[in-house]
Design brief:
Structural class: alpha+beta
Strand content: 15-25%
Strand order of the largest sheet: 1-2-4-3
Order of helices and strands: HHEEHEEH
Oligomer: single chain
Mean pLDDT: 79
Number of strands: 4
Number of helices: 4
Distance between the termini: 19 Å
Amino acid sequence: MRRRVMDEVLAGGSLVEPETVHTVGLVVTELVTNAVVHAGASTPSIRITLQMGDAGRLRLGVGDNRTASPRHLAPSADATCGRGTAIVGALLRELGGRLTVERHRGGKTVWAEIPGDAIGCASGQLP
């Protein structure tokens, strides 16, 4: 799923307030990029899951075929990679959310969970 499509789903479906669409889109982009970079060789397809829970809580899952969890690295100042998970973690903390990993047979799903009040959605319903 392209970033533009995810932005359209989130904004067009009124799932999140317009000012948080970019932030949520960035979280998804980073999780998908990590899956491609670290599991791409063993993963024929990456699964993106969007769920709305109680009080509008948003859960975005990115699944791949690799069982290893994302790691927080301490890259050097001139490193060109290695900051994505830290950025996602900081964005989610700012929104009151969290990043979790669910292992399953044949891989894992990395979940970004964001409270409904942080994204302007409390309905708990997909449109």
